Amino acid sequence: MSTKPVDTAVPGTSPDGAAGSFDPAAPYRVSESVSLRPEPFGALVYDFVTRKLSFLKTPELVEVVRGLEHHPDARAAVEAAGVPPAQHEAYLRALAGLLRSRTIVAR
């Protein structure tokens, strides 16, 4: 496993929308304004506030995102979803992007 730090900075935002960055050791959840619709490839993501449609491209990422609220932090959600350790950093980067788009928020 790499010891290189993950670049998860989210310019101009933090989990609560203030200045800051994604923290894999922090707790998150799906935004209340977001709906996830399961699809064979992963899920459609619709934000009722911004009216933006986006995609989660793998069923594993959908499981991670849905599991966020049930785990103490983002790393624990990734591990609990059964993501192989070699892919943890990629999933954490994906979560940082989801925070940037406000698909997930701090809890």
List the main descriptive attributes of the protein structure presented here.
two-stranded antiparallel ribbon; 3 helices; disordered N terminus; three-stranded antiparallel beta sheet; alpha+beta; 107 residues
Notes on the protein architecture:
The chain is of the alpha+beta class and 107 residues long. 27% of the residues lie in helices and 21% in strands. The chain is built from three helices and five strands, in the order ββββαααβ. The chain has helices at residues 59-67, 74-80, 88-100; strands at residues 28-30, 34-39, 42-47, 52-56, 104-106. The strands form two sheets. Strands 2-3-4 form a three-stranded antiparallel β-sheet, with helices on one face. A two-stranded antiparallel sheet has the order 1-5. Helix 1 packs across helix 2 (74-80). The longest helix is centred in the C-terminal third of the chain and has 13 residues, at 88-100.
Unreliable sequence segments: 1-20
What proportion of the residues is helical, as a percent range? 25-40%
Order of helices and strands: EEEEHHHE
The whole-angstrom Rg is 13 Å
Q: What percent strand?
A: 15-25%
Mean pLDDT: 87
Structure annotation, total helices: 3
Q: Classify the secondary structure makeup into a structural class.
A: alpha+beta
Annotation, overall tally of beta strands? 5
The separation of the N and C termini measures 29 Å
Largest sheet: 3 strands, antiparallel
Strand numbers in spatial order across the main sheet = 2-3-4
Outline, from the CA principal axes? globular
